[in-house]
Design a protein that fits this description.
about 475 residues, binds zinc ion, eight-stranded mixed β-sheet, alpha/beta, globular, four-stranded mixed β-sheet
Length: about 475
């Protein structure tokens, strides 16, 4: 009798297992919302001189992926924007938290910009009243994309692969012969870097490596229907715009090509199936650029390069996905830390220089951008001594994502990938705010545009080392 009871108990336990597995089910949903700005909204900043909006070449979007298991729900949203300030992203996070009744807490939301330069900088730089209105709408639309993705959660599985596209990527900082680089914007001599330079006999070699890895995260229903493909690559942008025209650059063309392809492959086209969404995120591209011509061809015409890059990468990603094996119930975890970093504020000497440049607009400046950097010095003098930088890491099964708000140099991304406890690690930059360029200390020594103190480059010289160290420790915490 006792044996029979024991057997029945065992049988019951075995029988209840499928229920508990269903509870631990991994689910996913994806959606996109148009965030194209109205005419008059400011586009990219004072150096690019590409705004305000006068036309739309191709619309821009916020593309959202929501993932959940029994204990955790997270959202990743990539926006076709040049950069987004922390205030705008934090507003969107508060809305998401409220609207999901804290099912997606703010600390489980990664929001990032792609860095297309033909879209607004949603930060306080060069802001006008119309921009305030756009920033408010943007936060609401980012939240709407998450709410839509969240309403479409279905049982899902996940796969990851990567391939190299070395021929599409170049370091855009060049190490030059001593004495060959002219005075910088502040009139200082001795720098060794020309940035975004064409050809020059003074160039010795590229000043750093590139990260040629293209990562692909594929999310499907358990029956194999596509939900989302998230790509990640480290090319700054393609460019080749027309003044005042909005464009999502190659990030948008990649996503559109993925969506067209995935939708043509859907098994069930009824309305009950989730929309297939393509998303393209930027890895570590603070010092990298696209080649401005296809192999052996003449220079790209306007908007041609982005189409070439986006479609080629999408086709390669689709091919890679066909070989994938999927994880059914991947663990899901996200960690967020704040890191305090010092600001490179101008000293008395720099402020006196700025005052002199700004008070004598007709005199000869050491560099054509000197006035811009004199303005920037005055802006930076209002910054606090230290700022808080938001860092996040996400674990999805055996895949890890590390993110920070800066324009990160490739060497930092490569080191994070190499030292991560996860073999499959990729990085997302310009996430959760804007921390400017992040040159490693050695690149600060060499100088160049990306190192000149401004609202686009203001963190302390050791910021790259400190951010990398913190992200690696967070990745270790995820792995434990
Ligand atoms: Zn840029």
């Amino acid at each position: 009798m006792k044996l029979l009871i024991l057997f029945s108990l065992l049988f019951c336990v075995t029988f209840t297992l499928p229920g508990s597995i269903a509870k631990a089910e991994f689910r996913a949903g994806a959606a996109k919302v148009d965030i194209t700005p109205a005419n008059g909204v400011s586009l990219d900043g004072s150096i690019s001189k590409n705004g305000p909006v006068t036309s739309v070449h191709d619309p821009i979007h916020a593309r959202a992926l929501v993932l959940e298991n029994d204990s955790t729900r997270i959202a990743i949203v990539i926006c076709d924007l040049c950069m987004v300030g922390r205030d705008v992203f934090d507003h969107a996070k508060r809305l998401i938290e409220q609207k999901t009744k804290s099912k997606i807490p703010a600390t489980n939301i990664l929001l990032a910009a792609t860095h297309t330069h033909a879209a607004p900088r949603a930060i306080h730089i060069g802001k006008k009243p119309l921009d305030d209105e756009y920033h408010r709408l943007l936060a609401e639309k980012i939240a709407a994309a998450v709410i839509k993705a969240n309403s479409q959660l279905v049982p899902a599985r996940i796969g990851y692969t990567s391939f190299n596209k070395k021929n599409l990527i170049a370091c855009r900082r060049f190490l030059c012969k001593p004495g060959s680089v002219g005075p910088n914007v502040f009139g200082e001599t001795g720098e060794r870097i020309k940035s975004v330079a064409g050809t020059s006999s003074a160039i010795i070699k590229p000043a750093g490596p590139t990260d040629p890895q293209f990562s692909v995260l594929s999310v499907q229903t358990q029956q194999g229907q596509p939900i989302c493909v998230l790509g990640n690559f480290s090319v700054h942008y393609c460019g080749g715009y027309k003044r005042g025209a909005v464009s999502a650059d190659y990030f948008g063309y990649f996503s559109e090509a993925i969506e067209t392809n995935l939708r043509s492959k859907k098994i069930d086209t009824s309305t009950a199936t989730p929309a297939a969404i393509g998303i393209m995120s930027n890895g570590t591209s603070g010092n990298t650029g696209a080649f401005q011509r296809s192999a052996g061809q003449k220079r790209f015409l306007a908007f041609e390069g982005m189409l070439f890059y986006g479609r080629m990468l999408a086709m390669d990603a689709i091919k890679a996905i066909e070989q994938l094996s999927y994880q059914q119930n991947p663990p899901l975890k996200m960690i967020e830390h704040e890191l305090q970093l010092k600001v490179r504020r101008p000293d008395e000497k720099r402020l006196a220089w700025a005052k002199q440049i700004l008070s004598s607009p007709k005199s000869k400046w050491p560099h054509r951008w000197s006035k811009i950097y004199a303005d920037e010095a005055e802006h930076l003098s209002t910054y606090p001594e230290t700022v808080s930088v938001k860092l996040q890491v996400i674990r999805i099964g055996d895949i890890a994502i590390a993110s920070c708000p800066c324009e990160v140099f490739a060497e930092t991304g490569l080191e994070i990938k190499k030292q991560s406890p996860f073999k499959k690690t990729f990085t997302i930059e310009l996430a959760n705010g804007y921390g400017g360029y992040l040159p490693p200390a050695r690149q600060h020594e060499l100088g160049g545009y990306e190192t000149w103190p401004a609202r686009s480059s203001f963190l302390e010289v050791d910021a790259a080392k400190k951010i990398k160290r913190e992200l690696l420790s967070m990745l270790q915490e995820l792995a434990n």
